[in-house]
Design brief:
Layout (H helix, E strand, L loop, with lengths): L5 E8 L10 E15 L8 H20 L8 H10 L1 E5 L9 H13 L12 H19 L5 H8 L3 E5 L2 E4 L12 E6 L6 H11 L3 H24 L2 H18 L9 H10 L3 E4 L7 E6 L2 H7 L5 E6 L1
Antiparallel strand pairs: 1-2, 2-3, 2-4, 4-5, 6-8, 6-9, 7-8
């Protein structure tokens, strides 16, 4: 092992909305993780990751030249390690909305950043915002545009509450009930999604006045209510708001939902057996599900792979 483990994340609420200043809530998901390792034998399996890191190191070199006050790295050490066979050994599925690039960014920052902000120090609002800005600049290499939240979540391994673009804080979330009937789960779409084209599509749609109004008056409103309900443990109100959010997404974000899941999505809303929402940018990967009765949801979704991530 060359570096510590960094975990995947799940953005419970806030996808797309946080671009437009909605609340958001992101939690670490320890089921998947990744770590930097060195393979001096240069096995073929690790070659692609090694080459990606080589391109990333060039990007980081330019980043610190252009933004010297923001961040600097020990590029010489990073390049030497890449020559030795550095790669990111990860179980986090790529293109699934659970933060594969975020964990890699966190690992690189942790290992190679100079004067880094550490998890052990008093994390003031200013320090959290600086970390988010650094991570946003680093992760833009992978997505074209990044909020920086995925790496922040992975780096701190804490739930993060996004109140607005410049107000974020670590959040305490209600304890899980291990034998609870209610659950939040991941539903596997069976195919990967790409973040950049989905975000581009959203930004294009935001040029339409009607879509902008819907985002502000419905999408952001329901998202904010879900975040508040979840943090306060208002379960009945949470499910009522998740249902509204699920319907708004089905009506207005169809391109982000794989075609074969439109009917399944609608069925959940009509039967109240489960409610689906986007996990990350959509287009594939995982979808998030909420249910008050996990056995009922499993029965209704018996042909699909479910992974419970939180129990009520």
């Amino acid at each position: 092992m060359y570096g510590p483990l960094f975990y995947s994340k799940i953005l419970l609420f806030g996808e797309y909305g946080i671009i437009k200043d909605s609340k958001g809530l992101s939690i670490p998901y320890n089921f998947y993780n990744g770590a930097l390792k060195i393979d001096e034998s240069r096995a073929k399996a690790h070659r692609e990751s090694n080459q990606n890191l080589e391109r990333f190191s060039t990007y980081l070199e330019n980043l610190q030249t252009d933004h010297a006050k923001l961040v600097s790295f020990d590029i010489t050490k990073l390049k030497k390690d890449i020559e030795k066979g550095l790669y990111f050994d990860s179980s986090i599925p790529q293109g699934y909305g659970v933060g594969s690039s975020g964990a890699l960014v966190a690992a690189i920052y942790d290992k190679y950043a100079s004067d880094k902000i550490t998890v052990l120090e008093n994390l003031t609002r200013e320090k959290l915002l600086k970390l988010k800005t650094i991570f946003s600049s680093m992760e833009s290499f992978f997505h074209g545009k990044s909020s920086g939240l995925d790496p922040l979540n992975s780096y701190l391994s804490l739930p993060i509450l996004i109140n607005s673009k410049d107000h974020i804080e670590p959040a305490g979330i209600p304890s899980q009930l291990r034998d609870g009937k209610g659950a939040i789960f991941l539903l596997d779409s069976g195919k990967t999604g790409e973040t950049a084209p989905m975000v581009q599509l959203f930004m294009e749609k935001m040029k339409e006045e009607g879509f902008r109004k819907m985002v502000k008056n419905q999408f952001v409103k329901h998202t904010d209510a879900c975040v508040s309900d979840f943090l306060q443990g208002n379960i009945n109100s949470l499910f009522s708001n998740v249902k509204k959010l699920s319907k708004v997404v089905l009506d207005n974000f169809k391109p982000m939902i794989p075609n074969e899941f439109h009917t399944l999505w609608k069925k959940g809303i009509e039967t109240n057996a489960y409610y689906l929402k986007l996990c990350g940018s959509g287009g594939g990967g995982y979808m998030l599900g909420f249910t008050e009765d996990v056995d009922q949801a499993k029965k209704a979704l018996k042909n699909y792979k479910l992974e419970v991530v939180y129990s009520f």
